[in-house]
Amino acid sequence: MTRIIDGKVISAAVKERVAKGVAELKDKGITVGLAVIIVGEDPASKVYVANKKKACEALGIISEEYALPENTTEQELLDLIFELNNKKSINGILCQLPLPRHLDEKLIINSILPEKDVDAFHPHNVGRIMIGDYDFVPCTPAGIMEMLAFENIDVEGKTCVVIGRSNIVGKPMGMLLLHKNGTVTICHSRTKNLKEVCKNADILVAAVGKAGFVTPDMVKEGAVVIDVGMNRENGKLCGDVDYDAVFDKCSAITPVPGGVGPMTIAMLMQNTLTAAKRQNS
Ligand code: NAP
Fold first, then answer.
1. Which of 57, 130, 166, 260 sits at 20 to 30 Å (Cα–Cα) from 137?
2. Catalytic residue set
3. What is the pTM of this model?
4. Does 254 contact ligand 1 (Cβ within 6 A)?
């Protein structure tokens, strides 16, 4: 029978763990603080930022929101990040992406102190993930690893296929599976024989951004299927996997919504707690 991997249940468990950690620090007189910067009026970004703020409040993390106008200059944003880098009560800094086009995303990310880079996008943290010596992992792949652990799905020796090679999801996902001794293939738009490659996967992670991309003929009998996709079709949120068609072939699968999505914010909270612990150790 196919098991549904429930992101709401697992993220609640992570949040409970984080709240406990935050309370333990509080008992020692240490607060945990996250600064979230948003530039411009992108509606989706505004929703993400509001959700992050709500999660912080629920777990006892102090959240500071910096909503800057669309016409903010690069120097103004850099000045704010410099100030937050030096602010003791702020342990984590997150700059909501995408930024308006006139701002150099790479420059902005690189200006966040690596020890406060709770998104794990700074090259320093990316490099540390590569060598397997890391404090922070980008929240979505971190959440997926948490789901696999929670469900007692052992990665060691498994054939793992990740569709998508973005810096935020695909690449770090591949590295984390590799660190757990999976045999990893990362696929992308130029991959040849994608179906055949996917069909070998014991663990298949789809991070493509195309609704219903993964069809039954790409899934091995008994595979674990992780759907990262967040696509809108006729106003409805759906994943990269044709869920209903693939369901019976899998041993376990994440739904959309209610799968990977809720894990991302939970892992951001986890990273913020980790940052606070490191900065106070
Ligand atoms: P992205 O940067 O657009 O990357 C998409 C990847 O898919 C690229 O590597 C691309 O290959 C590959 N791809 C596109 N078409 C393909 C095809 N026909 N065959 C094979 N590979 C193909 O997207 P992302 O940021 O990684 O996000 C992926 C999805 O996850 C999106 O739906 C996004 O909304 C969702 N997401 C969800 C969460 C969450 O919290 N649940 C978090 C982040 C992202 P190339 O590199 O060759 O172009």
1. 57
2. 52, 96, 119
3. 0.97
4. no
Amino acid at 210: K
Q: Omega into 98 within 30° of 0, i.e. cis?
A: yes
Q: Residue 207 in contact with residue 240, Cβ under 8 Å?
A: yes
In whole angstroms, give the CA distance from residue 130 to residue 112: 19
211 lines ligand 1 (CB under 6 A): no
The tokens for 4 are 């549904």
Share of the chain above pLDDT 90, in %: 99
Enumerate domains of the chain plus CATH numbers.
30-113 (3.40.50.10860), 139-261 (3.40.50.720)
Q: Which two tokens stand for residue 10?
A: 């697992």
- Number of residues that make up the chain: 281
What was the pLDDT predicted at 266?
98
Cβ of 229 less than 6 Å from ligand 1: yes
Paired sense of beta strands 92-95 and 231-233, if any: unpaired
Is the four-CA dihedral 23, 269, 236, 256 of positive or negative sign? negative
Q: Which of 205, 200, 242, 206 is nearest to 219 (CA)?
A: 200
